[in-house]
Amino acid sequence: MNSERFDAWAAGEIDAVESALDAWVPAESPAGLGEAMRYGVLDGGKRLRPLLALAAAQCVGGAHDAALRAACAVELIHAYSLVHDDLPCMDNDVLRRGKPTVHVKFGEAQAMLAGDAMQALAFEILTPEAGVEPALQARLCGLLARAAGHAGMAGGQAIDLASIGVSLDERQLRDMHHRKTGALLQASVLMGAACGDATPQQWAALSEYGDAIGLAFQVVDDILDVTQASATLGKTAGKDENNNKPTYVSVLGLDAAKRHACELRDTAQAALARSGLADASCLQILADRVVERDS
Question: Keywords for this entry (predicted)?
Answer without folding.
Answer: Isoprene biosynthesis, Magnesium, Metal-binding, Transferase
